[in-house]
Amino acid sequence: MNPRYSRVAMGLHWLMAVLVIGLIGWGLWMSDLPKGPERGWAIGIHKSFGMLALMLVFVRLGWRISHRPPPNQALTTIETRLANAAHHLLYVLLVVVPSMGLTSVNFTKYPLKFFGVEIPKAGWPDDTLNTLFSTTHKYLAWTLIALIVLHVAAAIRHAVRRDGTLQRMLPARR
């Protein structure tokens, strides 16, 4: 039997998955809103959950660094290398995408709030820098979406193969 991830690793994975998928959906939805109070409210929610995601990814990275994932005995050497590369890129994007969004906010005239609590900003109103970081946030978010689709496709492939890879990250059946 293929060794499973710990409950903490599973919990962090699925919590991040729900949070990131929610942020992506919310971000796509709010991008079509006209300027006004509803858009401002939607952006505020997106910022707060984005900061939460950034904090959570650092918790997850800390756990991952201090708790090595169990080896996957079902993978070939090339599959292991591809999986490792994809996971490393996922972690990089899970840090960089919200960081770019957060940096962008530092260069707007609007306050930075975390669920209604104002946080001091490190920047100043600057449309050029705001646009640079906002655009970077947007394009890297699309890259993250593509990588998530690839990740889900790989999980489906493993489920079809019934090689035990998917079960490693799913809660055990009783």
TrEMBL record:
Subcellular localization(s) per the UniProt record: Cell membrane
InterPro entries per UniProt: Cyt_b561_bac/Ni-Hgenase, Cytochrome_b561_oxidase, Di-haem_cyt_TM
Membrane topology, record value: Multi-pass membrane protein
Keyword Glycoprotein: no
Residues of the Cytochrome b561 bacterial/Ni-hydrogenase domain: 4-171
Short name of any one Pfam family annotated for the protein: Ni_hydr_CYTB
Superkingdom, natural source: Bacteria
Transmembrane segments: 12-29, 41-63, 89-107, 139-160
Gene Ontology biological process terms in this record: respiratory electron transport chain
Cofactor: heme b
Annotated GO MF terms: electron transfer activity; heme binding; metal ion binding
Gene Ontology CC: plasma membrane
Main location: membrane
Matching PANTHER family: CYTOCHROME B561, CYTOCHROME B561 BACTERIAL_NI-HYDROGENASE DOMAIN-CONTAINING PROTEIN
Family: Belongs to the cytochrome b561 family.
Protein name: Cytochrome b
Taxonomic placement: Bacteria, Pseudomonadati, Pseudomonadota, Betaproteobacteria, Rhodocyclales
